[in-house]
Amino acid sequence: MKLTSLLVKKTILFLIFIYSSSLAAETTKYTGTVSGQPVKHLMPLGNGDAVLMIESSGIIALSGNPPTINTMTCSGLGYQNVDNKTTTDFYCNIKENDEDSFDLKGIATEENGEADGKFDVIGGSGKWKGATGKGKFIRLEKTDAGNKTYLEMEITTP
């Protein structure tokens, strides 16, 4: 009887722990606008296509409570065909301050002057450590001075 009672108590404590652990994770939706300057390098291929190497950095304003201004740096490698359709795999780091930043891994496409893409949140540091999530973006404006891009994402932190 005593052993059964102890087993029931331990089972209840374990279930409370599991339930409270699942409540600890927080998912937040963010929207943001990125103003950035990409630097692109094309390596021509013999068939007329090209390999694209890109680096971009800029400022991103993210919604939240409170909203934040962050820095964003990205690097990517892509493929541009003869018709100028480009597909690029990229990684980005969004840095709020010296302790808090998160990372993205995604794919971008560009065709006929339009650019968009999607990404996964793949962790970070500080308050973003272990973060996961998904998002998408669309370029709003492309000028000689840089790009303006709108993004939406959902981030879950442990």
Keywords:
single chain; 158 residues; mainly beta; AOC barrel-like
Describe the structure.
The protein is mostly beta strands and 158 residues long. It has a single domain, classed as Beta Barrel (AOC barrel-like), CATH 2.40.350. Helices cover 15% and strands 65% of the residues. The protein has one helix and eight strands, in the order αββββββββ. The chain has an eight-stranded antiparallel barrel. It is elongated and about 80 Å long. The model has no long low-confidence stretch (mean pLDDT 89).
List the helices and strands and how they pair.
Elements lengths: L1 H23 L1 E19 L5 E13 L5 E13 L5 E10 L5 E11 L2 E12 L6 E12 L2 E12 L1
Antiparallel strand pairs: 1-2, 1-8, 2-3, 3-4, 4-5, 5-6, 6-7, 7-8
Summarize the entry for a quick read.
This protein is mainly beta and 158 residues long.
User: For the record, what is the CATH homologous superfamily label?
Assistant: SO1590-like
- Compute the number of structural domains: 1
Task: Report the end-to-end length measured between terminal Cα atoms.
Answer: 39 Å
In quaternary terms, these chains amount to single chain
Strand order of the largest sheet: 1-2-3-4-5-6-7-8
| The CATH C-level class name | Mainly Beta
Shape annotation:
elongated
Radius of gyration: 21 Å
CATH topology: AOC barrel-like
Q: Give the low-confidence spans.
A: none
Helix content: 10-25%
Strand content: over 45%
How do the helices and strands follow one another from N- to C-terminus? Answer: HEEEEEEEE
**Secondary structural class:** mainly beta
Q: Main β-sheet, in a few words?
A: 8 strands, antiparallel, barrel
